[in-house]
């Protein structure tokens, strides 16, 4: 009974073929360049976030101004505007 078959050519180095196949595929991949693209929907979201950030900055500035006026005692409430806003709720319409 033969354990080692000397007639088998492929059995000499079975891993050589897989290494050669990998190097060929790596060479093909080396020619390609990666590319990133942003969808139009994502661009719209980025612009909306930028607009929201600027609105938040304006709001924070207005709040800071109001805080300073209240702290200094110079903030005046417009009684007529406040009454106009409260009147529908006091009448029961709620709007």
Structural write-up:
This protein has 95 residues and is mainly α. Helices cover 66% and strands 0% of the residues. The protein has three helices and no strands.
Structural class, from secondary structure content? mainly alpha
Count of separate DSSP helical elements: 3
Average pLDDT, to the nearest integer? 81
* Main beta-sheet strand count, sense and barrel state: none
Question: What Rg do the Cα atoms give?
Answer: 38 Å
Low-confidence stretches: none
**Looking at the structure, what is the overall shape?**
rod-shaped
Can you write the helix and strand succession as a string?
A: HHH
User: What kind of oligomer do you see?
Assistant: single chain
In total, the number of strands is 0
Helix content: 55-70%
Termini separation comes to: 100 Å
- What proportion strand? under 5%
Helices and strands in order, then pairings?
Layout: H1 14-30, H2 40-72, H3 79-91
Question: Can you describe this structure in just a few lines?
Answer:
The chain has 95 residues and is mainly alpha-helical. The chain has 3 helices and no strands. The mean pLDDT is 81.
Features:
95 residues; single chain; mainly alpha; 0% strand
């Amino acid at each position: 009974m033969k354990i080692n078959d000397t007639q088998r050519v492929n059995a000499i180095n079975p891993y050589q073929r897989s290494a050669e196949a990998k190097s060929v595929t790596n060479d093909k991949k080396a020619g390609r360049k990666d590319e990133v693209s942003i969808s139009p929907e994502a661009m719209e979201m980025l612009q909306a976030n930028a607009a929201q950030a600027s609105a938040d900055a304006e709001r924070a500035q207005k709040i800071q101004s109001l805080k300073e006026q209240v702290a200094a005692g110079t903030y005046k409430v417009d009684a007529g505007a406040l009454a106009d806003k409260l009147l529908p709720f006091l009448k029961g319409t709620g709007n």
